[in-house]
Amino acid sequence: MSNERPTADELRQGITVEIVQEDQDVLSEDTEPLIGEIGTIYEDNPDGPKVKLKNGVVGHVQSVVHDE
After folding, report:
1. CA–CA separation, 17 vs 64, rounded Å?
2. pTM, whole model, 2 decimals?
């Protein structure tokens, strides 16, 4: 598994991703990533592309969740 974060250009609405909310420390070991479907894609950011999930949570994409 690669640690490469996707870019905003690689993301599409409806893709399931793992995000970290903006008010969480992205480097913290005890940060619990959230998983959900992308509703809106904002822009690339050093912390990962900023998105809003369909459930309304805004955060930075850490990785794309692939169906097993």
Report:
1. 4
2. 0.80
CA 18 to centroid of chain Cα atoms: 5
Q: From CA 62, how far away is CA 4, in angstroms rounded?
A: 8
Which residues, at least 6 apart from 9, have a Cβ–Cβ distance to it below 8 Å? none
57 close to 10: Cβ distance less than 8 angstroms? no
> At 41, phi and psi to the nearest 5?
-110, 125
List alpha helices for 1-59, DSSP H. Answer: none
Short-list 54, 45, 55, CA closest to 12: 54
Say how many C-beta atoms besides its own lie within 10 A of residue 16's C-beta.
13
Q: How confident is the model at residue 45 (pLDDT cuts 50, 70, 90)?
A: very high
